[in-house]
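Hi, here's the filled form for the chain we discussed.

Project: internal
Contact: R.S.
Residues: 120
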Amino acid sequence: MARAWAIKELFRDFWAYQAAGWAKRHVERLYSWAIRSRLGPIKAKARMIKTHLPNILIYFKHGISNAVAEGLNSKIQTVNPMQGDIDPSLDLETAFYLTVAVSKWRHESHTNLRRTRFLV
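And the returned structure, exactly as it came back:
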């Protein structure tokens, strides 16, 4: 268990590198350790990372990831099953915007509520 945790923590350092070459070297050392760890799930993840390493290293070239797209996809997936609960005359795009607006409103209301508690 401790080895798995140590390997995972060492991989977190990968994102701190500024250059793709140094990041690749870090992953190669990490891969070597993971493969020799005799931990099946860790070895499987290490092989997967090695397989996708060229695509992962593109992050260092462009400095962006697909996190925003994944977040939007998550919101769309949240809205999609709810379409039965929403007025049928609304299309998916309108339902999406309404869901995001309500979510933002709830967040702001909750934040304002917390602030007013301290002011009283």
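Let me know if anything looks off before we file it.
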